[in-house]
Queue: 2 jobs
Job 1
Amino acid sequence: MPERDERAEFIESVGDAIASWHLSRATGRVYGFLLLRTEPETLDTIGAELNLSSGGVSTAVRELVSWGLARTIPQPGSRRLRVEAVGGFEQLLAASHERTRTFIRTLHSGAALTDGARARERLRAVVGLFEGYVDAGDQMLRRHHVEDGDSRR
Amino acid sequence: MPERDERAEFIESVGDAIASWHLSRATGRVYGFLLLRTEPETLDTIGAELNLSSGGVSTAVRELVSWGLARTIPQPGSRRLRVEAVGGFEQLLAASHERTRTFIRTLHSGAALTDGARARERLRAVVGLFEGYVDAGDQMLRRHHVEDGDSRR
């Protein structure tokens, strides 16, 4: 079944990508799986499809929900939850910006520790690059947020 | 010596930040050390200050040079090199963009694997967010590059 192979490959790639944003690979694989599904899935199905323990699935789902990448849907008359992917990376990108802003503050604090004007100027240039970079990303996220809000009306 | 402590803290923070861009912490610490220095430093001084083996320093310097974050300066009449920091993160940021573009291609390829229109639309929204994000960053880097070029004239 070639499509099954392609699906597995897609799921692994999303796992790798999400791992580079400081979440676990298992969390990324669950997200990749859910992204392909229109209907919410039970934790049991997710575990069976991805070969994960029920504890592993719970942890991954909790992580996705806390980052706004999935939501749980209660089943009427059952204690079993179903889960679906949410297409919003805004929180993860905002967290990545926050890390960069921490780095910018560190670089700022270094100005007092440099041993001369040339080192100070070089540091200022690095700070300028990162500030411009984070500002451009923030503007884009804000714009996206506004458009998103508009489309929901 | 409080300043020495602050310097050590700065160096560790730069090490942590650089590690999140897929380089080694040692490489980041060497960069943090060099950022504070106006004059180029020998590999021996770097190793002694940061408590790194000469092999460790060589590897870190090679990594920095290959990413455009440092340059080596030959000493006339000596085989010893000196190294100084270069204030350009453009290559690292561009590599980070390239990873994001790979992720976007993966997401695109997933459209054919979704099981319904709603999943396909959600995937398209995620792709749109990342494309906007990477484009904003690219524009900023290009603008920075132009300004940089201008200021050198």
Job 2
Amino acid sequence: MADIVSMRECRGLHVVAQTPFREDGALDLDSIDTLSAFYYKHDAQGLTVLGVSGEQGKLTPDECIAVAARFVRAAQGKRIIVGVSSPGIAQLVAVAQQVMAEGASGVMICPPAGTQTDEELLRYFDIIFARIGDTPTVLQDFPGHSGVKMSPSLIRRLVETFPQIAVVKEEDLPSVTKITRLRAELGYKVRILTGNNGLYLPQELARGADGPMAGFSFPEMLSGVYDLMSRGESEAAHRLFNTYLPLLRYEAQGEWGIAIRKEVMRQRGAMECAVLRAPGPTLNAVDMAEIGDMIARMEIGFQFDTRTLGR
Amino acid sequence: MADIVSMRECRGLHVVAQTPFREDGALDLDSIDTLSAFYYKHDAQGLTVLGVSGEQGKLTPDECIAVAARFVRAAQGKRIIVGVSSPGIAQLVAVAQQVMAEGASGVMICPPAGTQTDEELLRYFDIIFARIGDTPTVLQDFPGHSGVKMSPSLIRRLVETFPQIAVVKEEDLPSVTKITRLRAELGYKVRILTGNNGLYLPQELARGADGPMAGFSFPEMLSGVYDLMSRGESEAAHRLFNTYLPLLRYEAQGEWGIAIRKEVMRQRGAMECAVLRAPGPTLNAVDMAEIGDMIARMEIGFQFDTRTLGR
Amino acid sequence: MADIVSMRECRGLHVVAQTPFREDGALDLDSIDTLSAFYYKHDAQGLTVLGVSGEQGKLTPDECIAVAARFVRAAQGKRIIVGVSSPGIAQLVAVAQQVMAEGASGVMICPPAGTQTDEELLRYFDIIFARIGDTPTVLQDFPGHSGVKMSPSLIRRLVETFPQIAVVKEEDLPSVTKITRLRAELGYKVRILTGNNGLYLPQELARGADGPMAGFSFPEMLSGVYDLMSRGESEAAHRLFNTYLPLLRYEAQGEWGIAIRKEVMRQRGAMECAVLRAPGPTLNAVDMAEIGDMIARMEIGFQFDTRTLGR
Amino acid sequence: MADIVSMRECRGLHVVAQTPFREDGALDLDSIDTLSAFYYKHDAQGLTVLGVSGEQGKLTPDECIAVAARFVRAAQGKRIIVGVSSPGIAQLVAVAQQVMAEGASGVMICPPAGTQTDEELLRYFDIIFARIGDTPTVLQDFPGHSGVKMSPSLIRRLVETFPQIAVVKEEDLPSVTKITRLRAELGYKVRILTGNNGLYLPQELARGADGPMAGFSFPEMLSGVYDLMSRGESEAAHRLFNTYLPLLRYEAQGEWGIAIRKEVMRQRGAMECAVLRAPGPTLNAVDMAEIGDMIARMEIGFQFDTRTLGR
């Protein structure tokens, strides 16, 4: 239970980590060290590995465990949360147990497509928690991906029934109003972290979210916005956010967005190779030039902004 | 409210009626008289017009009203329930009001695709009933078609909140266990009629259903099974059902099943032309021969059964 | 055929128009005049009325025709394209014929959910065009909404088979790469306009799109970006786009985004009342303050930008 | 390639095997021997293990391999085809390679939900076959389960492009007309086996299918119908089929049908324990009595039929 209490303290940037592959699509475990260092340098308080944008669905369970274990080894004392969602409960439970044995801080679970009605969702988590015991858990509310909608009142019931749920990752659009409602229904029984690639971050934080759980090729923006908002420097937070928004919105295009993100991160030295596992998009020369332009423009804006406004 | 009370009395066969078209796909309103006579001759206590297998989705609202009005004119004092489900509430309400003005006994509503969570479903019907007032209503529970699942506890809440719901058309598989649960939760506050083309009728009746609301090219089987079950002649009911089962299962193949049903009904003189509106299947010579064989075999079985068993 | 040729000339901003309602949800036809003037003042070359964000799905066919007719009356010689997509072909055709009779320039069609395989899609449009004849048509490629994916090679086959398709509204993500492929496959046989609330507009134009077909509460940004890009002033275009991006991304949140957009447009005098038809979101004080902040910040940025950069 | 040639010879009954569990949901590998014997006694020419009704989705990959290996050990020289469909390609490939190493005869693959357009489907199988090489493959065409529709012309392209596809398991409704079309398009390049719980078996065989690939608690009916049809004894085949049809249709109710099937098979001595893995239905006393009645009635009918008609 100590771990659940500790998970309930989480706030600030939790990066949804990429999974690095080699050109041939094999796992590149060594790059996980570089990648972790990159994230922590930019103030990640923890990582969520093997989320949707971590290409979890393309790995075998054995690979999932190897990746999680390597992130744990490179954790530098930070929280490692492992995405274990799966259409099958046995696979979810097996992976959850093994990554916890490897030293993970907790798991993230999104109910599988087709789990409808409040009744079925309660039953689903009942089966899960009977098996994974007191594993600290992030409940992922992401109907845009899973097709599963959970009302605020159901989320309250889940949180009250299953104390293992320490965090809700809220990405049901409009996330802003749902965060307002969840805060009203739940108080501070759980942390609320936000996803959707950080696309609504300043507003979500103003509504009471405890931090971003998202990926972006410039994680310093996500931690920076969080810090500025925490210190009450709302205008500076918005300015920082807006400077990066053109690229942020560009990375928020499903798998193709991930391809962009990995390429930018490769250029920044965070990983050796930007490739996605098949079936996934590959970038051509036109795409690369487009990214280059976007970053150049963003950097000019950023320098300009810094110079002019004294940030 | 008198109408809701009367709707709450409904039991026995309510045929989900076909909509007759001409060769060119135009409505054939005149055939509605012949068709109605055919259904009533075979002991229909009422009709559900413009259900899924009545091709409602292929008609304009004006056509829906014309079809419903004609069935009302030909009703011979029987109940005419009109399917008004629609992705849009305004269209649903407009059609509901107009068919009630034309003399319909009530409407049937299935919540539209994408209406998830107990909360949203309650809100949906709240909006609907605020507009259609005390229109007697059949709640259609048909997730196989709509993608919307409703738990027994939600159905109880809907029935308790909206007294207009006089009947539940139960076709969530396995319908048998859901009927058992609904009877336990609801008692006899509402009638339960069953769908799924009648494919589980004897078991559903034994579980407490009040009758079939289904289409079949031999409606005398549906009414016959209901009557036999009502009189406690369970074995005879099963025997009758099983004799027709090969064709019944054959008609339970979505739109192609409807094509088969209309063709058999045409051969039996119930309608002039068996055509479905586009896009819909058309039958070729191989299909026609297959149907012919199935009916011939069924009739031999039936005569044999009758002779040997003295039914 | 003259009309198809003319439709094939369309480029520049085509606003996806809102539909104005009164507080009680009734149509507010009079506001269509004000609204049209607002759009044309901001350089709309045409309007697409009754698109997804025009709440088409919540109107009856009669209401659709009334709305389209009023937009035509207020068109000031501009192109009025009417969204006629419907799960049912008869309704689609009836509305298409009537809005063309009212003077619309063309229709927009997105194939309905469930229409899968190249074969089915070809058959679907075959049935449609057999009935609507030479009505100039925008093919809407919007799998995020419809669930229907169309490959570039299928789109080419559709365009080659049905000369009525004068424009493709491309909003399959990543739209940028699909636009590149469509230009390669199609040349300039059709125009390509882009949607997704304009969220990727500068890149889409650079890839060869002919203009935005999107809604935004500041349509002057959409036309401005188009004009700047057309004149080769790419940097200025990006700067303009980026200034508005925080609000643009905020309006790109499905129905809630539409609620935001209508409220901002109400504040700008474009319409009397910002209400959406039920079931739709309503804004509360927190939401209103959030919008206010976002616009204030955007305007400061805009003035600042203008002053500093001499735009 | 020898194996592909051999797979292309398959005809007759291929049972979609159940997976036996203990009361606590653990795999019961020992029961696989009893179960295999039961299937072969009733004339199975091969088994398809870990299909949809084999609860594949509830097993971990390691469990899948253990189950497949045990079925191979108990195969008595019969063909063991292993269902390896998975949302993730790496998992599909890993399991496919391992079960082939364990001695399986081939694998069965259904493309995952969301794989739309002819282009994407060709690409999907291109990636798969680049990795599993010349593994003999059953292409499962089952849109009712997967949501993926494949037109006959696409299936022809797949078969012509990937010689590994030795069999099509055809269960897209109406399967009868699709079988007719596939035979016309493909000739005898591939075998066509049929699924849908065998619900349309006599008609499918008459249309040119090579046998059932289905589960049923009385597999002797499936092999019997196949044999009678092969010998041209169509009337006897139909009579046999129709006798079992009431139970057959009862087992064709998704997961609940599997619960029924396993219970009947347990009563027949085919396995120790009828339990399904969670989340799955459990049968109560009412359900058990209903099954009992159905079987009793079926057996009376069968004896009666045998006695009277001299079968």
